[in-house]
From TrEMBL:
Protein name: Dioxygenase
Domain (Extradiol ring-cleavage dioxygenase class III enzyme subunit B): residue spans on this chain: 50-260
Family that this chain belongs to: Belongs to the DODA-type extradiol aromatic ring-opening dioxygenase family.
Keyword Metal-binding appears in the UniProt entry: yes
Molecular function GO terms recorded: ferrous iron binding; oxidoreductase activity, acting on single donors with incorporation of molecular oxygen, incorporation of two atoms of oxygen; zinc ion binding
Amino acid sequence: MNSLHDLKNLSDTLPRRAAKMPVLFVGHGSPMNAIEDNEFSLHWEKMGKTLPEPSAVLVISAHWLSKGTKVTAMENPKTIHDFGGFPKELFEVEYPAPGLPSLALETKNLIQSTEVELDHDWGLDHGTWSVVRRMFPEAKIPVLQLSIDYPRTGQYHYDLGKELAALREKGVLIIGSGNMIHNLRMVYWEKLNEPNFGYDWAHELNKTLKSKIESKSHNDLINYHSLGEAAKLAIPTPDHYFPLLYTLGLQSNSDDIEFFNDKLVAGSLNMTSIKIG
């Protein structure tokens, strides 16, 4: 483990680039997408080939909820298998991407609204590695995670996302990984393989969210509770929704919006994803 003194000497080492790195919000869905070839995972692979090669990847995953904000700062983050009931093959997956302690410190220093803890215990959970291993299978690009301070409001997470903007200028690919519509209690498992099957309220909200994103109506998206009964059904808890707010906070006025993997799954989940910039 590097000392804080060593980290300070390493900080701010990524050079600026001529063009800003895009930002992604990825609907990650089932952990099985990490090993199955389907329309979602194959699009992640395509995205990895078409994006500029990142200097590093920073992921805000729905599966690292904390009290306070933390960033992984180890040189070799472990692969976390934070799920149950899946095939042995999935538990055997390792994604040995390196960390980047200097970037962890730079991220900590960029965020002025709260104290950020340098974390050496977490690693890469499936909200991160299930997506990133399909995009960058060689596992050579450094990967970090930023935790979600779960008791905080949507506005807090949106504003914190804004504070990360300078990283885009250094080639850091920032990914919010969750699902905008995520109600596991209402999943219709028998319809799992039916293309784009969703309850009426799920289709309604998916359309509303995309419209709000396209029109940059960020206040409505921050205050998602105001989006009616459909939002209450689609977002019973905000863990998978909060990563979206980080990515929206990073959107500039000149950034284009592109939706991909825009499908409903098993009634009450959506895979709708966004490329910003």
